[in-house]
Amino acid sequence: MAEFHQSRKNIIRLIFIGVFAVIAMRLFYLQVIETKYRQLANAQAIVRKLIYPTRGIIYDRHGRVVVNNTALYDLMVTPSEVKHLDTAFLCELLGIDTATFRERMEKIIIRNSRYRQSVFAELLPPDVYGRIEENLYQFPGFELVERPVRNYPYHAGAHIFGYIGEVDSATIRRSDGFYQAGDFIGKTGLERSYEDVLRGQRGVTYLVRDSRNRIQGSYAGGMYDTPAVAGKNLYLSLDIELQQLGEQLLQNKIGSIVAIDPNTGGILAMVSSPTYDPNELSGSERNKKFSRLFTNPELPLFNRPIQATYPPGSTFKPVDALIALHEGVITPQYGYDCRGVYLGCGRPIKCTESFPGHASNLYNAIAYSCNSYFSQVFRFIVDRERRPALGLAEWYRYVSDFGLGKKLGIDLPGEYSGYIPDTAHYNKIFGKGHWNSCTIVSLGIGQGEITETPLQLANVMCIIANHGYYYTPHVVDSVEGDPDFYRTHLVLHRITANVSDTDYDIVTRAMAAVVERGTATIAAIPGITICGKTGTAQNFTIINGKRVELKDHSLFAAFAPREHPKIAIAVVVENAGFGASWAAPIASLMIEKYLRDSIATDRLPLLKRISEANLIPEYILEKKRRIDSLNQVRDKLEARRIVAR
Amino acid sequence: MDTHVRTSTDLIKPGIDRVLMALYFILVLIGLFSIFAVEHRPGEDVWYNVLHLSKNYSRQLMWVCISLVLALGILLVDSKLFPALANLMYVFGILLLLLVLVAGKDIKGSHSWLVIGGFQFQPAEFTKLTTNLALAKYLSRLDVDFSTLRARLIAIGLILLPAAIIVMQSETGLALVYLSFFLVLYREGLPGIILIVGFSVIVLVLSALLVEKHILLMIFSVAAAFVIYFMRRSFRRHPERLFLILLIWGFCSVFVMQVVPYIFTHVLKPYQVSRINVMLGKEVSPKSSYNVLQSKIAIGSGGLFGKGYLKGTQTRYEFVPEQSTDFIFCTIGEDFGFIGSIGLLGLYLILLFRIIQVAERQRSTFSRVYAYGLASILFFHVAINIGMTTGLAPVIGIPLPWMSYGGSSMITFTMMLFILIRLDADRQKILR
Known about the structure:
Number of helices of chain B: 18
CATH superfamily of the largest domain in chain A: DD-peptidase/beta-lactamase superfamily
Number of domains of chain B: 2
Distance between the termini of chain B: 19 Å
Number of strands of chain A: 20
Strand content of chain A: 15-25%
Order of helices and strands of chain B: HHHHHEEEHHHHHHHHHHHHH
Largest sheet of chain A: 6 strands, mixed
Radius of gyration of chain B: 24 Å
Largest interface: A-B, 40 and 43 residues
Oligomer: heterodimer
Number of domains of chain A: 4
Largest sheet of chain B: 3 strands, antiparallel
């Protein structure tokens, strides 16, 4: 009996140990071997929240804030928490119909699940925000979330600053997990080229939530949190008032203005017209406004100062003169007896002036922009060598030296290089040895295959003003907290052909004569010596399948004051006629504004006349009218849909 | 009786098992701190909550105090009182259970609560104590020979009567606890074959539920054929063996093909079937599987060393339902990890072994049976409770002794343990 009890006592103990051992093994499996429960727990209880830093602020050369941040609100929705919703009321507040409401809701649920918060309406206009905020308690599951957006107090400089937009999937993939869907990234302009600097560093905070998705506080005392670092501020060489004036002068015109400080290469103003108010692309209805800009036949999104290329026309003549002087093919006293047409190559080349002596020496030839003179000078340059190919190659080297036919490396995206034809170009067209200086004589007067951007034209003025060097044009002078920026970004380029100071002085004197007594007397400002050169570029377009010659582009390039140049400027007004008629006075007003800080009263009528002129070609206006009426119909339909609700 | 003046300390101190006392206090403290961890939020005034009984942990503290008063009372009374009152208390317990059937209140789907003066009380917890006492009393009677069928039937009847009434109260989980008394009966001489048969039936039920019926039938048939083939020579001398094998084969087949499906469709309630199916992994019922999944996530996320006290996220932020009561083990699992879980399991195992050791040193049958009864009940509670939090056992809602929040269970388990301590202190005096 005793043994029997003894064994049963032990069997019971064995049962206890056995069952507990099974439980212990189960615990070992759950807690030590299987790792998915930890992940599940983190997924349930821990919320990873990104903290977006504020984007860097942008200042102009006088410390004025030109790009700022302001807050708009997105209406967010968590579909699973939407209950007893007065859909009609919410739709009324938002100005949408119930069909749109349902459509958006379905899209959100499909894309982002019922339980996650998604954007229902983004960047609400302030009035809509106010109405919704008042009534938000009636809409469970909806929340207003602040979103910083860009704000432009001067409503100018759209092309320079660029805009930010939602990052695209290709960039997300390339960024190695840095960007996430819905993040904003600089798309164009400074926002894009200085994205790394402006965006700052995102912070992460880990929060604990309970089973009902209520935030309970920070996770692990904030041990794993990283703070957001605000984006760095940019300080520009830009003068925002000068920029505004430029935009005013070019309104209702197609064209560009580039103004550079030749002493630093800093961009003072860079106008692309037509332009738009940069605030339009940062507030509500951004997508709609963007698509309107995108389809506008005037191409307002096109950044003309660095992306449009034009034949330089007569503005190229000072470069011709410098090459010829340095090569010694002419002296300043060299004259050409022009009677209004150049016949040296058989087919006549017309000259705008015909009075005798307008090309009696280099100074007059530049002042009166004699085509015959520079056709002849160009032929001297090309024919100096035994073969025209060698002469052109030499010319090409000089022209490249002046920053033409290549990108200058401005700190804005999308710069074009323009085009300078070389010997290979003509060998290909005419065959090797089958062309000569006469074949390509129009290059001498800046016509033909040669094209340059307004930026390059302004840069040429810098080189002349500086007597042989330029700094890489740039918009950003310095970056907050980066003392080395200036040193690393201010790059000096010296012209390799060592053109003498005397030669520069000669050309400068000639350019001063342009304004004093030549083609651009309209640009003269009492007390300021402007050295400039007008240009008039022929251009063609295709309308209804026919090549049509359009009204000439009006060009003017200048620097001032002559003694210590502070501003170099290039103005292009498309299809506006003579350089002297529009581009020159625009440049003159810009120079006056920059050097004197204001426009003299007696010149205000000029300012008014130019600002109010509409020089957009008829064929573009026609296209624009068609698209505008289409948009109007679209707007009406949309409005009717809302009313019909 | 001794002649010197007896003081209460004299009465209590000698012979008291300090190991049991220590284990009891450790477990109660762990329980209080676990409930505290579930409810406490940083910045809350703990003392205010304690004084105003506004939190589960403060109410649990109150129950602990009440239990300790009762425990002190038990230590102060004469140990002869327990066998003397056993039958009376059993009858009282049965009457309480019957009263619940009539006047009970429905709380969380079970009709097993009495509400007295604002307090809820669950007699099904209390009758564990009375049944244990009555069983010990019956088996210790000099005129009872447990080797007789009659005595065995009466003992089983004593156990099953309260269990049956509790089933009627829809507290199947607590009723199942009474099955643990069979371990006591085994200890006292019930043939082991009954345990084996019982275990086999459980295995059969499980396989009937998990394996396709026809496959099981084929397995049984093949197994029987093999056995018959290998034993074919002995059948000439023992033809009854062939008959026995065929009988077992027939029973298993009928059981699997008919009985189990019948029980599942006609006897068990749908929610019970669902719980069992969820435990077996056959069904994913959103609610019951949600509880178990959340419990497993909480325990599993604790890892080897745990997240640290008050650092658990799953147990503190309402992810695990019934966190303070049935699923209190999750707090240990999450905050203290595998090490802490094993430690707690170890404490319970030491307690069980100590009770058996205490049981075996008793000279009276009453005390021994009583001790085994306590050990069996504790074992069942701990195994099933932790089993259900880890997904090994179906969720039948029985508390973890001294840890789960709840007055009935705290008082019952405390009284049961202290009665044993009291009996053990007098083990030299009680002979029967």
